[in-house]
Amino acid sequence: MTQKDMATLLGERGLRPTVQRIAVYEYLYDHRTHPSAETVYQALVQQHPTFSRTTVYNSLHALVKAGLVKELAMDTEERHYDADVALHGHFHCRRCGGIADFTLDESLVQRLMPDGYLVEGQGIYFSGRCPACRSAEPTN
Amino acid sequence: MTQKDMATLLGERGLRPTVQRIAVYEYLYDHRTHPSAETVYQALVQQHPTFSRTTVYNSLHALVKAGLVKELAMDTEERHYDADVALHGHFHCRRCGGIADFTLDESLVQRLMPDGYLVEGQGIYFSGRCPACRSAEPTN
DNA sequence: AAAAAGTTTGTAATGATTACAAAAAAATTG
DNA sequence: CAATTTTTTTGTAATCATTACAAACTTTTT
């Protein structure tokens, strides 16, 4: 997606498409590594030395509120962000620390939902060992 | 469960059953409200004025490591703990802030798991409005 | 009883996030 | 287009949960 398209998208969601917000969104869009706010900041401050940490936080919050970015619920220290807001699960490898996406069957997830509740968000994650770490250290 | 049984249980899991650890475990066992460390501390310090915050953290970590307590992954500020380590999901109500349990079908959850990964832990939660808050404010 | 190991406590440090106010930028108004 | 208002950014300071650490204490082992 081009920056122009991103600007349009932000505008549609009621966010003024500032350089900073587009940069944050672009980073998340291009790096599907579920980075933390600090990771985003460190990456962006290279290109834009004037960017502040607070703006990264502000932008992330604005993007989450606008529904363009999702905040992950994981048992990690910091919060992680994802530009992929479609239904999918996350796997957190306890050995390498990586967070991988995996697909979720929509109808299967529907069947998990508790009755009587109005579901607006969901977080489905598993943790353990990713395939690479399993073969690297098979016994554990 | 009696404190005696808890002491035995901790012992079986390789934890010395100290007064503090039993108190923390007992609180979680009796209060299925998914409290934070601070909440546990505030409750316990009433009865045991000498208890320290650090000990509550230490005890929680020890209990989690021993598999007697589970740390929840939610999109909240602090970490929440649960003495129920059996498979179940959590619902976080965005209006009242409450966290409710709901049952999960084991085989359904199995079918969600990604292939090739060794799954050691899982967190399944939904957020939105609980039934009480839905009827209290139906339009939203 | 002495030594060793494990646990608790209080305080200090850390680290992520938020609060806040001034400066800057953009949008609106006349 | 200039003046005013609104929004956003920036930098610093504050906050809040959690962790680090070392001394004191308790329990276990010898």
Molecular structure report:
Two copies of one chain form a homodimer. Chain A is of the alpha+beta class. Chain A has two domains: 3-69, Winged helix-like DNA-binding domain superfamily/Winged helix DNA-binding domain (Arc Repressor Mutant, subunit A, Orthogonal Bundle), CATH 1.10.10.10; 86-136, 2-Layer Sandwich (Dna Ligase, domain 1). Chain A is built from six helices and five strands. The first copy, chain A, has helices at 3-12, 19-30, 37-47, 53-65, 106-112, 131-136; strands at residues 70-72, 80-82, 88-93, 99-103, 118-129. In chain A, the strands form two sheets. A three-stranded mixed sheet of chain A has the order 4-3-5. In chain A, a hairpin with a 5-residue loop joins strand 3 (88-93) and strand 4. The radius of gyration of chain A is 17 Å and the shape is globular. Chain A starts with a helix and ends with a helix. Chain A binds chain B through residues 71-75, 79, 89, 91, 94, 100, 102-105, 108-109, 111-114, 116-131, 134, and chain B through 71-75, 79, 89, 91, 94, 100, 102-105, 108-109, 111-114, 116-131, 134. The structure holds a DNA duplex (30 and 30 nucleotides).
Short description:
Two copies of one chain form a homodimer. By secondary structure, the first copy, chain A, is of the alpha+beta class. Chain A contains six helices and five strands.
